[in-house]
Amino acid sequence: QVHLVESGGGSVQSGGSLRLSCAASIYTFSTYSMGWFRQAPGKEREGVAMINAFGAIDYLDSVKGRFTISRDNAKNTLYLQMNSLKPEDTAMYYCAANPTGWALSRKLADFVHWGQGTQVTVSS
């Protein structure tokens, strides 16, 4: 019984900011590795940022220095703060859960639970 719901997407101009949230209905949320993925039209889904059960973090190279992933285990919530947004960041963003808590994997197959996605659009 796992349910992930993303929110916070929207349309912004280049250089703007958005904060995405993922509300996780997971009894053992703190034991999961969590990640944000994105998929643009015509492109493969890619891992953007990961945070494991111990707080270790990994980012896609193209978002380093601009995006910050965090989690609040008491609230069962995952966040992605996105600053200095670029048009190439435009995509559907998905929250996902990996039951291997120590992992910082970006492999789609490692993530068992997925949210429905929230759209991020960045204009020039």
Word description of this protein:
The protein is mainly β and 124 residues long. It has strands at 3-7, 10-13, 18-25, 33-39, 46-51, 57-59, 67-72, 77-82, 91-98, 113-114, 118-123. The strands form 2 sheets. Strands 2, 4, 5, 6, 9, 10 and 11 form a 7-stranded mixed beta sheet that branches. Strands 1-3-8-7 form a 4-stranded antiparallel beta sheet, with no helix packed on it. Strand 5 (46-51) and strand 6 form a beta hairpin. The relative contact order is 0.32.
The main β sheet shows up as: 7 strands, mixed
Mean pLDDT: 97
Shape: globular
Order of helices and strands: EEEEEEEEEEE
Q: How much strand content do the residues show?
A: over 45%
Structural class: mainly beta
Helix content: under 10%
Give me the count of strands.
Answer: 11
What is the distance, rounded to the nearest whole angstrom, between the alpha carbons of the first and last residues?
41 Å
* Discrete helix count: 0
Low-confidence regions: none
Radius of gyration: 13 Å
